Amino acid sequence: MTSPKTADYDAIVAGAGFSGIRSLWELGQQGLTAKCFEAGSDVGGAWYWNRYPGARTDSEAWVYALNFAPEVREEWQYSERYPSQQEVQQYMGRVNSDRFDLRKQIDFNTEIKAAHYSDSDNLWTITTAKGSSSTCRYFLAATGPLSIAKEPPFAGLKSYKGKWYQSSTWPKDKIDFRGKRVAVVGTGATGVQIIPKIAPIAKQLTVFQRTPNYVLPGRNYVIDEYQAVDIKQGFNANWKQAQEHPFGLAMNSTGHTIKSVGDADKIKQVLDSGWENGGFHYQFETFDDLFTDQESNDVASEYIRRKIAAVVKDPATAELLSPKYPFLSKRPPCGHFYYEAYNRPNVKLVDISHDEIDMYENGIQTNSGAKYEFDIIIFALGFDAATGALAEMDVRGSQNASLGEIWSKSLETFAGTLVPRFPNMFLVCGPHIPFGNMPIVLDIEVNWIGKTIQHMQKNNLAKIEVTQKAVDAWSSQLDEAFRATLFAESAKANHAWFVGANIPGKISTVLFYFGGVPTWASWLENEYKSNWASMNFFPAAGVEAKSDGIASSLPKKAVAAL
Ligand code: NAP
């Protein structure tokens, strides 16, 4: 690639989580030089930071992988159905990063502060918190959909004298909960994993719940030597199945709708089967119309409420734990003995749905005047999802356009990969990707990015920009898919993070695509099939660019639809 100014690297990757590692590998395959900056001291991303007790995946081991190298599959076997944080961290580090010598490309403990695009030389300059600056042609923002934690917004926290921790920046050293009075604030997927772990150890555990969740039983188990063989043998088939599943999971739709089944006993049997199978099988292998049909959703919601009532002995506590909104309005957590924890005499649930909390010197107080003393408070308050990490960074595109400012008003992408006015910046697992199992989604996305970069390299194209027409078409598709769900409104009302409703002041817009992985993947596939018809390419200065035999227009003029 010729260009007026030589870049320090062909590409710079932000973040060394699943997306960043997959990106580094892809860039290496293209023979490109790449550097990765990572704020943590090791690879892993979300799995590096979220090392709280009970942290494990909610996706099954056989689809929670990086699928770039067959030799990894042979070498590695997770030991449990839902791998623990420690195992995922090992898998990312030892198996993927060390095996392919990727660490040498990563600067750890190095946060990116700014990423600025220059229109004059088509390069990005990436500046780190340490003050170093490097230039690159392609900026791959692999900052993760759930990487910026919602900080405790409590004014009184400064006066609190006990210890407090955030789930998302959990200390490496073990915390001793024995004999302690502990509070957990937050009952999302994170709180749901922490609570049953601490309950048996703490002297007293008090859970502050604002909105209850529909918690599905995960039903974790140890993978024995026989299943391990089966997983290895079935890897490709499982992966393909997950790529074809709307949410990126190796699951089968049943073909049932609530109306097609009709009979009450049969309906119960279908729901029992999903429930007993564990985890997301309940929502994806029962009724295919749970997302779109009110009756179907009502029946599935009521089924869970009955399960809660059957497990939780105290009827008042069971009632508080039972959501009244439609199932799937919030992302359902996977629990392991979550509801059972409330049967312990040392565990108490405090309803704060109509009563705000704050801290005082000895613990937590409510607006209504109740006071609770604690030695330790744990905050599991969620994340500024999808856009948070990049909006926080000073990212400036063409003509100094600020990503943070633009995204504070409206959010536009092309299929979650490119952003108008931000040439040569590729999002990896950012906003507008399908809601679902991330390893599947990012594999498809990084593969597409690789192909697109290869196309540019081959044809001496210095710059890619997505057309506004393509962005508008994608926005309509995105809205349409979300409006087709029956929780488009209830998600906002119940502070769901996938619409940004959990962060005060954040624009309320759907952050993920609900039309399914295959449809999204077809949008990307259509690009290379149509020779990137939705993109404008610009040749390197002084170069008569050609693409696949088609002569380009003059330098600096768009070479559209090559
Ligand atoms: P979350 O689902 O957003 O839950 C945050 C919790 O904090 C909610 O219960 C929320 O109440 C509460 N909260 C927030 N601000 C509060 C305040 N000011 N006062 C009182 N309560 C407050 O966050 P999360 O649990 O971290 O989970 C986020 C996502 O991360 C999950 O849905 C999942 O996709 C991912 N995750 C995955 C795994 C896994 O794969 N195993 C594990 C953990 C997380 P409201 O509901 O009322 O807002």
UniProtKB/TrEMBL annotation:
Q: Which UniProt keywords apply?
A: FAD, Flavoprotein, Monooxygenase, NADP, Oxidoreductase
Question: Domain of life here?
Answer: Eukaryota
GO MF annotation, one: N,N-dimethylaniline monooxygenase activity
For this protein, the record's Pfam families field holds: FMO-like
- Native organism taxonomy: Eukaryota, Fungi, Dikarya, Ascomycota, Pezizomycotina
Query: Gene3D superfamilies annotated for this entry?
Result: FAD/NAD(P)-binding domain
Q: What is this protein called?
A: Cyclohexanone monooxygenase
Q: Does the keyword NADP apply?
A: yes
Q: Does the keyword Chaperone apply?
A: no
Organism the protein comes from? Lophium mytilinum
Q: Which PANTHER family match?
A: DUAL-FUNCTIONAL MONOOXYGENASE_METHYLTRANSFERASE PSOF (PTHR43098:SF5), L-ORNITHINE N(5)-MONOOXYGENASE-RELATED (PTHR43098)
